[in-house]
From TrEMBL:
Keywords: DNA-binding, Transcription, Transcription regulation. It comes from the Bacteria. This is TetR/AcrR family transcriptional regulator. Gene3D superfamilies: Tetracycline Repressor, domain 2. Residues 64-83 bind DNA.
Amino acid sequence: MHIQDSHWSSASALAAGGGAPITAAGTGRDGTRSTPLRVDAQRNLEHVLRAAREVFGELGYGAPMEDVARRARVGVGTVYRRFPSKDVLVRRIAEEETARLTEQARAALGQEDEPWSALSRFLRTSVASGAGRLLPPQILRVGVAEEPSAAAGDEARVPAQRTQPGGGELRLVPDQGAPTPQLDAGAAELLDVVGQLVERARAAGELRPDVSVADVLLVIATAAPSLPDAAQQAAASARLLDILLEGLRSRPA
């Protein structure tokens, strides 16, 4: 799996409120179409989106638009007519995959009574879907920032799913020397829902106390390798996830 930050800066206005959502039949301020697409144009759009998911999933978000066009079997001009910049396409794909993971996390929370079953179900579903290969880089930089010890009364004001043993609030960890990137509402929602899964499993004593939301997302990203053979990929993902789940689970002293 390769996740790169190339071409992400303006797409990661992924928080800064940069532009309206992109739809096949509408557009916001980002320059995409505002009129319904013809049947052939709609088909081309679907090909481009499918190709983008495949290419970015295999090569990371640094892959060129020409690779997407080649996979979609359309000219690169067709890609740019639908998405005026690579940032717009990257943002579209990342937002869709983030939303998909959030739905999977909510389903696990709502349909599994046992905390460990809910967390493991979410991980298995997410890894099988391959969405982890398309997580926004900002999501994978989520970590815990150590803060000065607070008074006992202050700790109660920090949401449980935002903290880890040892203190510290869940926030984005930027690259050295880089400004702290922001999260859009969809990505923040994903962190919140996964945080609930993590906190429930930790409170039940079934999850190692040092495991964070960032660790769970990293498992999703790394347990979905991109292999040329679909059957081999599924088998490798399942095996790797079994090993990682064993590493996450709490063990009696």
